[in-house]
Amino acid sequence: MPIDAAGALAAAPRVREIAWDHKDVQLYHLGIGAGRPATDPGELRYTLESRLHVLPSFATVAGGGAPGVIGTLSVPGVDVDLAHVLHGGQRLRLHRPAVPVRGRARASSRVVAVYDKGGAAVLILRTEVTDADGPLWTDEAEVFVRGEGGWGGERGPSGRPSPPPAEPADHVVERTVREDQALLYRLSGDFNPLHADPEFAARAGFERPVLHGLCTYGTTLKAVVDTLLDGDVTRVRAYDARFAGVVYPGETLRVRMWRTTGTDGGGADGGGADGGGAGEARVAVSAVERGDAPVLSDTVVRYG
Question: Any idea which residues carry the catalytic annotation?
């Protein structure tokens, strides 16, 4: 079998040293759509080095190496065609209030679960990042490999997305994805040709190159931080999302947000940031031009 579940789970962690500085952070922020309008004080927090705050989702690209989806393919016991690989979901836990603007750290990655979905396999790659002062963050990438199931392994949790809350969202914002967004975002480390090469995208079953799932992931977290947390990136504690569909560059993302705890009564009129208490927000993201086709589901941001 191309995937040897026992071998992947038994493999030693892959350990690498990572480093980043303000230029990496700024490039990432631009890659997820920050800087529009360019002179807006709220945007300068993401683009100007003298005011720089790090959006926590930068953790998924810190160090500039291959993202978890690509890194999983180098694990012993995993030998699959990149064209059959999809990013199923991402989970992030912050162990400190802020990701530093510059740093050096040790990243240790290993496959912690392999599930047999029948027509596909799902691998969970966990990465734990620590620096000289201790743990920084832990993230998990859920990697979906078409055509690699059926060996009789554990099926794992249900892959069906949960519906968003039935009540109207507390806030709705829209974010336009630039035509060249994927070309800019890939400079942060994910050079998968699916996001740039039309021929490769067609071989993978898409009409044209698609946006990186982690670009949508970062764009969504920025929308939540700016809308609910008054731009305070240090309040984010955890961020989970499942990738429910693709985004094509040039499309518009509709981001709906529901406060489930710690609300301050901001209401559904789109006004008012969170009052400063701990809480949780549920989020759903869709592509406006394709009839609000789901893009992110089961998305939760926990904050302090």
Answer: 190, 195
